[in-house]
Amino acid sequence: MSRLAPPPPPGRLHRWRDPLLMAGMLALVLAGLAGLAAATGWQETRAQLFSIGPGHLAALLALSLVNYALRGLRWHLFARRIGLPPGLLRDLRHYLGGFLMSVTPGRVGELVRIRWIRRETGMTLERSAPLFLMDRAGDLAAMALILAGALALSSGSIAGGAPLAALALLVALIATHSQLMAGLVTRAYRVFGLWPRLFGRLRAMARTLAQFSHSGVLAGAVALGLIGWAAEGYAFHLLLLWLGVETTLWTAMAIFTFATLAGGLTGAPGGLGGAEAAMIALLTLEGVPPETSVAATAVIRVTTLWFAVGIGAMVFPLAEKLSERNRHAVENR
Length: 333
Hints:
globular; 0% strand
């Protein structure tokens, strides 16, 4: 009887899974935007897109860079709290490189940052993994506060805006509360009664959240997130003005933040599809012509989400190479 060949390594089987998923989701979104552009008139949409010049694009990208830089500083602040040695450039390299994985489902691909930390410092997963949770919670809290403030100050209203802001803030508070998270993990273990080692590690991770409970750390983290996400909201406001849409800053920020949060709730990679649909729908409800809504949505998503992915694509190979090199140094100590 002939012997079966051994299966290929798992890495080879799944090497192209995430890139193909990204490409497929992007293709679907582009197809949807193209369909809307065709329905509203290619010429009108094309004219709106070409009204945005290089100077406009540079300003939008600069505001996105403000967001990325401030959130990178927040990651550095959290990294110092868990006991990582000083290394601002290292932390920024990890944070920006992780953007390549922003369009994985639930953005779980950004956990690659934790792998880099383990390689370069030898820090255990239980100690470093809460960084990912705190980063996600920090974004939720910042966007929830921006959405709530923008809704209160804007002249219009968004159906479901206040509940969405409240839900995002509640999730952020729960996710960063050490005792509450540990209690939830314990209750889940009692319900399922399986995988004691896994739940034990999850409890250990939950307890490490107490390191972030210092009011100064949380206040600084929220402030950095607020300024960063407000910069992108302001970019959306400028874009609408350049496209001839007369709207207030607060209305633009409410639409941008609501669409970003709503897209994230779909669980799709990078909120693809959901964020675009919500943004176009809200702009249309504000009386913005369809061709302008499609153009504004396409431009702001390119200069925020896809700009971040592009930065991640440039930094990722360097972060991977340096983490592998530093791993050997850590192992040889």
